[in-house]
Every structure is written in structure tokens, then in C-alpha cells.
Amino acid sequence: MVCDFLMAATSVSISPMRAGLAAARATLLPGLVVQATMLAVVVAYYGSSAARPFFMEIAQWKRNGGALFSILSAMVAGGVLPELLRVAFFQKGRFTAQNWNNLAFAVPYWGMQGLWVDLLYRGQAEWFGNDARVATIFKKVCVDQFIYNPILAAPVGVTLYEWKNRGYVWSREFFTWNWYRRRIIPALIATWSVWIPLVTIIYSLPHILQIPIFSLALTFWVTMFTWMTEILAPQMENSSGVA
Asked: What are the boundaries of each domain within the chain?
């Protein structure tokens, strides 16, 4: 759902930088809402003793669930939730074959992403430590957004969603620099505008809470993008002449 919207927002025939900035502007409002929500969560963790037992309970869920918790929570937030919202608010509660097709793609895709993020967060805690010092957070954000995202997360996400949208027809174009320049770079610019502040907030928490807070951020993110995809993306496609 998020990738669908970003691809619509970045598919116009302009430079990758301008396309990325256009997508970043389109995602500004939901990004600010999610960032403010996550910041409030972190403030509650560090500033409210009454909230601490709640966070400890969530941390225990993650300890008990391990990587499976990360996979399942990402499946729900990124795959199941947006489709349920689409059915509930835009299809009057009626499931169609397309909804089931969307779920068949999105649920395993986001489960894979949840596992990758779990491994990334765990690895960075081992590499750089589990403290909230500025230097530690800075290193983790740089690895996350400027190594993991450009090399793995963004190319895989944008390309797989395009593959789905083309009827699961693969193309050699997906492995070219032109594809990366036209589609991946604009998506990266849009993603950075939202997720650099978000992962900074996430990495300020102890490692055991990072995946639950990531899942919460993803839930808010895809919820808002459900609305944006249904309402704004078709308008973008029509205005840009995309079939």
C-alpha cells in the first residue's frame, strides 16, 4: 500500500530529485503525525513512571516471541490492516478477489520485512551498543537509512510492488541503473523525509522495545497511507498520464 502510493507519486516524467521531493511533500502530513505520535511514546517511556509497567509488558512480549513477534506484527501492520481498512471504509465491508490477492502478496512481503528489521536492530545493538547516546543513535540511523535502505529495503520493496502491479511479470529493467534512478531514488527521498526522524526516535529506546515501537509506527503509517492511496494516488496517476 505504501509502495503503491509512492510509485504513483514518483512516476511522473521528471528528474528523480524532483519526483522524490514531490513524493516527500505528498507524505509530509502523515509523516509528521506518525513522528509526533512516536515522539509522544518515547517521552512517555522516559518521563512517566506510570507508563513504565506498560512498556515492560510489551518488552516481555518481544522477549517471549523473538523474531516471530517481529514477523507477525509487521504482517498485521503492513499487510492485514491496510486491506481491512480498504474493505471497511472504501468497499462497504465487502471483500473482493482483489483484496485476497493483495493479502496474498502483502502479508508475506511484510513478514519478510519484519524479519529483516529484527535482524537489523539486533545486529546494530551488538555492533554499536544498546544505549541512547547521541553517537550510538547517529551510527544506527546512518546504517539503517544510508546502507540498509538504499541497498536492500527500498530496491526490494519498490521492485516487488511493481512486479505485483504488472501482473507478476518480471522484467530485466528491474536490474538496471535506469530503474534505480527513476524509481528507487525518488522513493528513497520520500522515505528519508519521514523515516530518518522515526528511526532516530526508535533507536533512542532500548533494543527490546525497538521492534514493538517500529510496529506501532508502521501501523500508524499504513493506516494514513490507506486513506492517501485510495483518495490521492488515482488523482496523481491521472494528472501524470500514467495508465
From this structure: 2-227
